[in-house]
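Tutorial handout. Part one gives the primary structure; part two gives the three-dimensional structure as tokens.
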Amino acid sequence: NKFLKTVIDTFPKQMSLKEAKQILEKQNYKYIWTMFNIFKNIYLPDKMHGIEHAFRTAIYMLMIGVMKKVNKDYLESMIIVAFAHDIGRKYSSNQDHGFIGANILEKYLNASECNVEIIKKAITAHSIEDYNLYMDINCKNSKEIQLIKWLKDVDTLDYIRFGIKEYNPNFIRTEEARKLIKLAAELNLYMESYPKDDYKILRWDDKNEFNS
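Part two.
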């Protein structure tokens, strides 16, 4: 459509839903489903900020991790951050929902798990405006800053769920995330066509029909 044509003209080298499927099938990222099954029981039913939104942001985050060739531990941290970023909305819809969510998540993380502090810091930071960010969160580590930028970007990518008229891809911060705008549009449309929790993204075929 006109929106996607404009996106492709403005931000070339867009990843499609079909390409994302191929990456998922090739790498067999079962960790996505492990986290999905955990977090679907934590989120309240909420079409805009619930498990469906968290799932899509995890897919975008996974694609960024693959593009940037991050190591396995850091990739898993990226996926956790994406799934967990809005769990604090259960208690607050305001700017502090990131801070609340980080504290909730701590109960579910192994104390010895790699990158625990980075995960908590990223979730806290995602609901803070950029101009306050580094002062409020005290970010000094490049990995922390990068993860925060990616989390903010995958959240922005999925803003397309509110409709094209509300969507401004120029707010996306990183080059790698800008390559996922087409994927975000197609994934939202794809998920709209199936009942809740019935989108087995590892098993779709080229016609958007499930394989048996």
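Part three, for discussion. Confidence is low (pLDDT under 50) at residues 202-212. Residues 2 and 79 are 31 Å apart (CA to CA).
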